[in-house]
Amino acid sequence: MDLFKVLGSGARFNKKRFTDDISLFEPSNKLRKTNDTSDTQMDIMQEINFFHNSKSAIDETLGVTKDKKITKDVEKDQEGEESINCYNDENEDEDDQAEEEPLVKDLNSMDDVKSFRKRHRIHIYGTDIPNPFSSFDDLESKYNFQPYICKNLKNSAYEKPTPIQMQAIPIMIHGRDLMAMAPTGSGKTLAYIIPMLHDLKGPEKIGYRALIISPTRELAQQIYREFKKMAVGKKFKVCMLTKATAATQAQTPHLREKFDILISTPLRLVHAIQQDIIELKNVRHLILDEADKLLELGFLEQTDEIFAACSNVKLQKALFSATFPSSVETLANDFMKDPIRVVIGLKNAATETIKQKLLYVGQEEGKLIAVRQLIQEGFKPPVLIFVQSIERAKELFHELIYDGINVDVIHSERTKAQRDSIILNLKQGKIWVLIATELMARGMDFKGVNLVINYDFPQSVQSYIHRIGRTGRAGRSGEAVTYYTKDDAPYLKSVVNVMKESGCEVPDWMLQLKNPSRESKKRLRKKPIERKTIDTRSTYDLKKMIRKKYVSNYLLLR
Ligand code: AMP
């Protein structure tokens, strides 16, 4: 309705004729206060206390006074699957940020540690939690790290640890199981690579001692590169499991013992385990990167088999992701030993440096018009466009290829060589617009992506957070636009909640929308909305209709 108001006299909206459509955007019957300050912080902490800590442990964890401002809005569905909030300490953080950073050696009282965590929005849950650290210099002076690690950090121009690194590294050094949740692009990879290298000390010839699992091959390669960068100066042998490396190790069994670190996707590793090519009995560190994905149906069986093969009694497990639905947290809690949970900022929230927008495009055809409009107006490459299926990725590619822009498309049907070259070309700026399926949504670190377009509305909040997280990485700014049609309207509120929580402006009417039901969210997660094909003919018809004023020109607005 706001949109129509803005359009003014140019657009008319027949409420009678579009009664059904209007009902889609009706406010929730059970309108909830958006800034519900009446609930106590303790209530919220109890709600998100997955590890069932005592009240005093929660008090200690909070390290905040009870009259603190709390935002307990958003989605709290019965399963808590997409519950977003911990608590909101943004305002306090801003004030604190101005203060000079105390060094960790000065953090000699519980109060210092609490205020340090608060300042960096580090929330911790569990028992006997090691203190965070504040400077990479501490790694050598306080934790006896070998100098090569700090040298490599310096050479990579990493000046100070990010919040997830500040807290996760000491936890991992202490050998504790960890569940770490931090926004996209906030340095999670280094948070496990650094302590792992420290603990492995140097190369040995007893076979794999550390294992990192990633849901996609592309992310595994990225992790491999980061490992190599951080291991310069030590002769660690890192293996990225591929068809070729598996075949080599099958033919020359003595080679297997030379490797220290293994990085793999689940299916590739399960095959290798089943064929006795890989042994994991000496693995002391097991990392699940994008852990919630790896614990979803579809991957869970494989992950389970990998766990079973890691038979070392001293195995340390660490899970990392930007999102953890509660159901996954409960599951993870079952197979971890006295774990510590670290949440940076808000649970399941988007990175705050991303400017998020929702754009109503009417019908399917409106999406192509909106993209073309963006191209005509001029845009800052690179841009990532997400669609819901391989078919649609191909269709959109065939539309945009004639628009005079360097566009490419990536999905699982493209060959590995093609996928590798596309990623390289995107990083080198040779591709301006990359159309992608969910394959690219997680973990990929494209530093310069300026804009993410959700051409097709994401199938879950988690998918939304990960997709838009391809921009705004490592503190940079970025933009994300999500197109929605009438068919997506019932799910709109899930995205609105994320937007609001990450500080984006959202019109009031959107805040008053109904939350989608648990059942409908489940349905959407399983099966995407059926959409009309992306083809020029229908767009052409629409353009004709616009010219003839059958359709208002609101579709052309950005
Ligand atoms: P990740 O979340 O691990 O994908 O990291 C996101 C980006 O942050 C990557 O480009 C890293 O190189 C970068 N990064 C990681 N740690 C730091 C740090 N301490 N300081 C600056 N950038 C970092």
Automatic annotation (TrEMBL):
Domain DEAD-box RNA helicase Q: 138-166
Keywords recorded for this protein, A-Z: ATP-binding, Helicase, Hydrolase, Nucleotide-binding, Nucleus, RNA-binding
Residue stretches making up the Helicase C-terminal domain: 353-514
Compositionally biased region (Acidic residues): 89-101
Renumbered residue ranges of the record's region Disordered: 72-101
Protein EC: 3.6.4.13
Domain Helicase ATP-binding: 169-342
Residue numbers covered by motif Q motif: 138-166
Protein name (Swiss-Prot/TrEMBL): RNA helicase
